[in-house]
Amino acid sequence: MLSGDQIRVMELLPSGDEGPAAPLRCHVHIVSLSSNPDYEAVSYVWGVPDGKTSIEVSGRSFGISSNLDALLRRLRYTNRKRQIWADQICIDQNNLSEKTTQVKMMGDIYSKCRQCLIWMGEIPESVPQSGVEDAIHLLEFMATPDDVNVPEFLSTRDKFIKVFEVLYLIHPHGNTWWSRIWTVQEVILPERKTILWGPKVLSWELLSQAMHTWTTQYMPSLMDILLDEDFQEMNALSANIVWINYGRNSDLPSILVTKWRNRKATDMRDKVFGLLGLVPDHVDLEYTGRRTCESSVAEVFSSLTLDAILSTDSLQPLVLNPRLEDDIATEGISRWAMDLKGFPKRDADTFYRDWAHDHYNACNGRALDRAFLRSTVEAHAGSTRVLGVSGVMVDTVQIISPQRSTAPESDARISENLRAWYKLAASRQPGGVSAATRPEFDEQFCRLVVADILEPRDEDDPESQSRMPNAEDLENAWRFVEEGIQGPGELWIKESHMPSQLCNQIFFVTASGMMGMGPWDTLPGDEVWVFDGGNYPFTIRPRHERGSKGEFDFVGCCYIQGIMFGEWFQKQEELSTQRIYIY
């Protein structure tokens, strides 16, 4: 049995005179991480166990996956032992208590290893040796283009494509290592990492430097022969490398799990457990820490969401499209919890939302009711199914537009939808829209279209700041609404800002005539609230079961024109704060 900070390390025995075909053999011993043991950790895709491969552990046969079998055969020395940490062998997978403890230690296990050995798999026999050498040559050239001769295969795109098809074997779109959740922290945490690709050994630094050059330096011999789809594939590799290289102790839990939400896991609990080693040291995972490998997936996800809320001291995690549609959602999950099973079918622009969250202040600086959140958990016997929040009700959704904004869409289609929204909103204004009130109404609608705040045009320019839209911006937005025409320099409309604000949103008008946008499944009768600690407003749906007063189902964050900067609190003399429960 393991205790404290103990782990198992396997001593992989040499093949000796038997050669590569020799059976795999090892001894396993227990060490304490605090004693700084010397070992190498492996990162690989488990694959499906087929019962055909095994390793002899201290004289007893132990079944392992064929992918681990292939990796260990590549790692095994001829005449000396090798100290390896591999989860299949070093964790008792049938002991859930041990598995829970060891899973939570994975961050330390990979942080303290001498190096991480990343297994990209064997090279198919159909790939010629020359093709592999050319693929590596391409990386070497990209890493140091001024020091390496221009490869001959860059003379034409056809020749380049043949080489890139080989490189694709270790590309995020061509190798499943990049798609698994566990490999994220396994590659981020170690100080040193080495890529094993069949018999080839590549340093992680080679890949990193190649992608750094790709993003910072113009290489005419390469870039002049590429088409758009080639750039997209290179950019995909570059993005993964950058996220990994800058992924250590940099993200709060809500952004961390959102960033890697597309990674796959056989056990959905691993979408949380597989990233725990990357959570900054100062973040207290109080509720997640209570969960085990026997906890339900729904409980693990909701616990992480509560910890994320407490770590940001705000409702920012609820802004990041946490909820999946009912037909694809995790079984039994609370609608407010971050459902990391996948992405919504109608996904809003998550990272735009995160950016905008820091600029809005719908709650007018009112602090998150941490005490009520915690007492709600304890009142439900430690379950994190119910979210206790305090806030004020603003209004009720009265009518929704049948025209919905999807992504991507043409300018003409977006403009057509906006005109339909405008017409609906105008028809629902108390007293109508007169000649005297139309200029103000038009301005408010245009502010909604551009989210009432504009992103900096150049993120790398410190002089370029986020700002409120001015008269010229609003005039340009109105021209787009009316005609679908963009003027010179209006990149904020097409390339990022307007599509990000409108992406997969439904337009609605409240009972008092307020204009808003929210999730596609928003319904008439949903209530608009501003919660303490919420920079965005939210829509929630009253529960109509007997005895459900003060209980609501979560719908999502929304945008309501005219209250995003705390105006609701500033213009009301007295507001009654309520404590409610959200499911």
Automatic annotation (TrEMBL):
Residues 39-186 form the Heterokaryon incompatibility domain. Pfam families: HET, Het-6_barrel. InterPro entries: HET, HetReg/Transcr_Mod. This is Heterokaryon incompatibility domain-containing protein. It comes from Colletotrichum tabaci.
